[in-house]
């Protein structure tokens, strides 16, 4: 009898050990969750007024609550991502949609992408000048065409044919962004050093004005992850420059088996590092947690390369991560209990 009890106890211990990691995986942190960013950069408290800070916090909260309500009521992560991003696209505070930065030619050229983690299907648009909601157009490319990425006038024609709202390019104009372009152009004229990486690129005030993007990742009650990113790109860009935001794997990625990611930062480095896909791949192939993967990709790999920026990411169990190597990132998250986090600066 004693032998039997010892044997039964030992079997139980072995069984429990074998179940350990799987059990941990199976316990979701959140049944549904949502996380957003409004751009990363040299965002310092000393350069902010209390009014500006309050305006950013309020808009981030307004945007994320739109997505949260959709998820809470059983809606899809895709709808949550689109509706949340649209609030930020319509706000002049962020470099996406209205309020987008200006190109060297004084125009606004918008990029966006969307990915569905269940099907691994995706859509993107690049260099468009008249589509009111670039993120909606990106998802339309995914749902209503056999392509993944459309650009320029062709993308606008597609959007028109699909009945999306087209606006006069002046809709995107904001005085603040135009002044940023003028400041950079003036600085450029007086720069003696005209290397590929001119020093104005490293001036913190200007760098802050050059970048910005909005993004959102959501997990719905059905376990589906979606991610989206929308941007005006980089102030003073020329030659049809396209950043990482519309590139699947760089600016946006979603996979129900791993995670969803939306990036913001110096796009050229995010393209070279395949930031969003690398985070998913590290989880898939190296068995890393979301936190381990985002930390390695941003704090180690991207930083070593010289890139600046960050990501918001969320895994299949509803764990969430903000990761950036800049002074700040406009960001917010909400879990399934309605706990809201809104932050701007580094802790
Ligand atoms: N990543 C965007 C780009 O390079 C800009 C940003 O996120 O700040 O176009």
Main β sheet profile: 8 strands, mixed
* Distance from first to last alpha carbon: 59 Å
The 3D shape can be described as: globular
Overall tally of domains? 1
- In percent, how helical is the residue content? 40-55%
SSE pattern, N- to C-terminal: HEHHEEHEHHHEEEEHHHEEEE
Q: Looking across the biggest beta sheet, what order are the strands in?
A: 4-3-2-6-5-1-11-12
Count of beta strands: 12
Structural class: alpha+beta
Which CATH first-tier class would you pick?
Alpha Beta
CATH topology heading: Glutamine Phosphoribosylpyrophosphate, subunit 1, domain 1
**DSSP strand content:** 15-25%
Rounded mean pLDDT is 90
Quaternary form = single chain
Number of continuous helical runs: 10
Radius of gyration: 21 Å
CATH architecture annotation: 4-Layer Sandwich
Spans of at least 5 consecutive residues whose pLDDT stays below 50 are: 19-24, 192-200
Write the layout of secondary structure elements.
Layout: H1 2-26, E1 33-41, H2 50-72, H3 77-89, E2 110-116, E3 121-128, H4 134-144, E4 149-151, H5 152-161, H6 175-190, H7 204-210, E5 214-219, E6 225-231, E7 252-254, E8 259-265, H8 267-273, H9 275-286, H10 290-305, E9 309-315, E10 320-324, E11 328-334, E12 340-345
Parallel strand pairs: 3-4
Antiparallel strand pairs: 1-5, 1-11, 2-3, 2-6, 5-6, 7-8, 8-9, 9-10, 11-12
Helix pairs in contact: 2-3, 3-4, 9-10
The chain binds aspartic acid.
């Amino acid at each position: 009898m004693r032998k039997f009890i010892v044997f039964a106890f030992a079997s139980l211990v072995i069984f429990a050990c074998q179940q350990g990691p799987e059990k941990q995986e199976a316990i979701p942190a959140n049944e549904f969750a949502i996380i957003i960013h409004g751009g990363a950069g040299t965002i310092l408290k000393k350069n902010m007024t209390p009014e500006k800070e309050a305006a950013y916090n309020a808009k981030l909260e307004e945007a994320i609550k739109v997505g949260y309500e959709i998820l809470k009521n059983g809606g899809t992560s895709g709808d949550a991502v689109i509706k949340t991003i649209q609030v930020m696209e319509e706000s002049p505070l962020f470099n996406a949609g209205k309020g987008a930065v200006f190109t060297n030619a004084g125009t606004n050229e918008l990029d966006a992408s969307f990915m569905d983690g269940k099907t691994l299907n995706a859509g993107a648009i690049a260099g468009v000048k008249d589509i009111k909601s670039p993120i909606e157009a990106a998802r339309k490319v995914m749902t209503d065409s056999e392509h993944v990425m459309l650009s320029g006038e062709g993308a606008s024609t597609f959007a028109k044919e699909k009945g999306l709202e087209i606006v006069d390019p002046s809709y995107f104009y904001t005085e603040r962004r135009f002044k940023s372009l003028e400041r950079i152009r003036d600085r450029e004229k007086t720069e003696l050093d005209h290397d590929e990486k001119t020093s104005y690129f490293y001036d913190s005030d200007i760098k802050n004005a050059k970048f910005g993007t909005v993004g959102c990742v959501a997990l719905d009650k059905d376990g589906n992850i979606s991610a989206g990113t929308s941007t005006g790109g980089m102030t003073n860009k020329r030659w049809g420059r396209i950043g990482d935001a519309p590139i699947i794997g760089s600016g946006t990625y979603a996979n129900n088996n791993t995670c969803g990611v939306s990036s913001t930062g110096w796009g050229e480095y995010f393209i070279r590092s395949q930031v969003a896909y690398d985070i998913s791949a590290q989880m898939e192939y190296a068995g890393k947690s979301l936190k381990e993967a985002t930390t390695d990709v941003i704090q180690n790999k991207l930083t070593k390369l010289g890139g600046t920026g960050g990501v918001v990411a969320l895994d299949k169990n509803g764990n969430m991560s903000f990761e950036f190597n800049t002074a700040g990132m406009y960001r917010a998250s909400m879990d399934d209990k309605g706990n809201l986090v809104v932050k701007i600066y580094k802790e």
